[in-house]
Amino acid sequence: MAVRIDHVGLWVSDIDTVAAFYAKYFDASVGERYRNPRKGFESRFLAFDSGTRLEIMTRRDVNQRANAELLGLAHVALTVGDEARVDALAARFIADGMQPESGPRRTGDGYYECVVRDPEGNRVEIAAG
What we know:
5-stranded mixed β-sheet, 19% helix, alpha+beta, 34% strand
């Protein structure tokens, strides 16, 4: 059985700001907005050249962010090529006034990564692939 993750869904409050972040830094293609007015739900798919997708979603009754670590989604990891690409992205974030949460660094399990937060505070692990 060939299994792969098709996409990961993230609840956000501002779809346009989050979509712009992933488009700017990771060259994501931003799909059309889907709306379901009856449920107060909207979403957009963000597609990367590799075929990986993120679905960013908002709904009127989903409006609180956890203040601490909770069980469930911890981060989204995106591979961007080699270590030089990780370093270049980290430098872009810093130049744009966003301090990485960690790295660039080599982790204990051998990854070369940098961790940043998207505009809504979701952790994004940028790794050499």
